[in-house]
Structure formats: C-alpha cells, structure tokens
UniProtKB/TrEMBL annotation:
Species of provenance: Magallana gigas (Pacific oyster)
Quaternary structure and partners: Homodimer.
Keywords: Coiled coil, Repeat
Any Pfam family hit: Tropomyosin
Name of this protein: Tropomyosin
Function (record text): Tropomyosin, in association with the troponin complex, plays a central role in the calcium dependent regulation of muscle contraction.
PROSITE patterns: TROPOMYOSIN
Length: 339
C-alpha cells in the first residue's frame, strides 16, 4: 500500500512540475507582451475598463490601441496570479499529504517491527515451553523410576523382614547389612523424589510465568493488529486525498489551457490592435504631411496677400498724392481764371 501511495505522489509531483513549466512559459509570454506594451503605452498608471476605453478614445491622438493592450495585459496578469495561488494551494495540499503518508509509513514500519519482535518472543516462549515440557516429562520419568526403586527397596525390606523371621542366627548379620543398604537406598530414593518434586514445582512456576508472558505477547500482537488496521484506514484516506488532489489537478490543467487560449486570443487582439494603430498612425502621418503642406501654402498665400496689401497701400498713398496734386492744380487754375 505504501508503494502505491508513493507512486501516486511521484506522478502528482511530475504533473506539478509540468504545471510550473507551463506557468513559466505563460509568464515569459506575458513579459514579452508587457515589454511590447511598455513601448506603446503613455500612462502606465492608467488602467481602464472596456467601457472607459471607448469613452476615452481620442481619434486625433489615436491612443486607444495601447490602452486596450494594457487592459488585456492587466487581465492576463490577474489570471496568472490567480493560477499561481491555486498552484500554491495544491503544493501545500501535496506537502500535507506527503507528511501524512510519511507518518503513516513510519507507524506501519514500527508496527511491523513490533509485530516481528512479538512473533520472535512468542516463538522463544513456545520453544522454552516445549523444553519445559520435555524436562517435566524427564522428571516425571525419574519420579516413576524412583517410585520403582522405592517399591523395590520396600519389597527387599519386606523380604529381609521375612527372612529375619525365617533365617537362622548365622544369617542375621547379613540380613542386617542388607536392611541397612535397603534403608540407605530408600532414603536416597526419597531425596531424589524430593529433589524431583522441587524441580517440578520450579518448572511449574517458570511455565506459569512463560504462559503469562505469552498472553502479554498475544495481547501486544492484537494491539499491533489494531494499529495496523488504523494505519490501513489512514492509508486509504491518503489514497482518497491523492485522488481528490489529482481531480483538482485535472481541473487546474483545464483552467491553464483555458487561460492559455485566452492569453493567445488577447495576444491576437493586441497584435490586431497594433496593426490597426500602425495603419492609423500612417494615416495620421499622411494627414500631418498634408497639413504641413497646407500650412506652407497658407503662409505663401499670407505672404502674397501681405505683398498685395502693401502694393495696394502704396497705390492708395500714390492716389492721395495724385489727388492732392489735382486739388492743388484745380486751385491754381481757379486762381488763374480769376485774374
């Protein structure tokens, strides 16, 4: 289960890397577009809405192309920032999933080690129990043998008593020796029996302790099995979280594709706007050239009119002089006629 979770996380990391690369490409495109727009826009602090673009359109200055490009760039930047925030949230979610998976894996390893240790302890206890059973069997066999020896000694003792009653005085010493030997054998048998009983009691105590340790080990195994179940449930939860993260990742990929297409559309619109601005700029240049020609023609006409006006003023002055001379001649003629 841990190998499957690790493989899913690796695939998730690869997809996140691809998303970051695609995001970097979008950022590079945006920077290129921004540099192009920086060469055109006149007021970088004036970001307008589409309605404001048409309201502030000035046909004389032809500035609507840079404003539209600036607005499209601003929209693309906002979408890229939103995408970066989503990618950051996804990375944080992935880091939390990795931490939970690492914790669950460590707990699983600890539980496995504890289970192995408990299994080894259980086997040791079983082996020791088997050895104790063998020793008990040996002691029981020894006790049976001692019982046989004791019975044999008792039988011989009875035989000696019987022989004492039936034997003659010449065999009394021999029978007494045999009786003494029988008593010694009986005492030795009793000692061996007591030793065997003591060892059996010690073995029973050791066996009870071993059984208690075995029960504790079995309880520990049950506890570890419960922990393994909990770890398994946690692993399932992690796999579900990974699937949900994968689904969110697919949604982010779709969003990135949509943003990429929208960015391309914005770039196309900006390019078209630039071409339109270029055409209009050429038209403005042509009109400015025509206006300059008209201004020159106007200046020439003004100069010609001023020259004509000056000539006219000179003619009027000449006319006044002629009139004065004529009046003076008329007066002279009138005086001459009086004489």
């Amino acid at each position: 289960m841990s190998m499957g979770g690790a493989g899913t996380l690796k695939a998730l990391k690869d997809k996140m890397g691809a998303l970051r690369e695609e995001n970097d490409i979008l950022k590079e495109k945006l920077e290129v577009q921004q540099r192009v727009n920086d060469g055109l826009k006149q007021d970088k602090d004036n970001v307008l809405t589409p309605e404001e673009i048409f309201v502030t359109f000035d046909p004389a200055q032809m500035v609507w192309g840079p404003v539209l490009s600036e607005w499209l760039t601003f929209q693309a930047e906002q979408e890229i920032q939103s995408l970066n925030r989503r990618i950051q949230l996804l990375e944080e979610d992935m880091e939390r999933s990795e931490e939970r998976l690492q914790t669950a894996t460590e707990k699983l390893e600890e539980a496995s080690k504890a289970a192995d240790e408990s299994e080894r302890a259980r086997r040791c206890l079983e082996n020791k129990s088997l050895l104790d059973d063998g020793r008990i069997d040996q002691l029981e066999g020894g006790m049976k043998q001692m019982e046989l020896v004791a019975n044999e000694a008792e039988r011989k003792y009875e035989e000696v008593l019987e022989n004492l009653n039936n034997a003659s005085e010449e065999r009394t010493d021999v029978l007494e020796k045999q009786l003494t030997e029988a008593k010694l054998i009986a005492e030795e048998a009793d000692k061996k029996y007591d030793e065997a009983a003591r060892k059996l009691a010690i073995t029973e105590v050791d066996l009870e302790r071993a059984e208690a340790r075995l029960e504790a080990a079995e309880a520990k195994v049950l506890e570890l099995e419960e922990e393994l179940k909990v770890v398994g449930n946690n692993m399932k939860s992690l796999e579900i979280s990974e699937q949900e993260a994968s689904q969110r990742e697919d949604s982010y990929e779709e969003t990135i594709r949509d943003l990429t297409q929208r960015l391309k559309d914005a770039e196309n619109r900006a390019t078209e706007a630039e071409r339109t601005v270029s055409k209009l700029q050429k038209e403005v240049d042509r009109l400015e050239d025509d206006l300059e020609q008209e201004r020159k023609h106007k200046l020439e006409l003004q100069a010609e009119m001023e020259a004509t006006l000056q000539d006219l003023n000179e003619l009027l002055a000449e006319k006044e002089r002629y009139k004065a001379i004529s009046d003076e001649l008329d007066q002279t003629f009138a005086e001459l006629a009086g004489y």
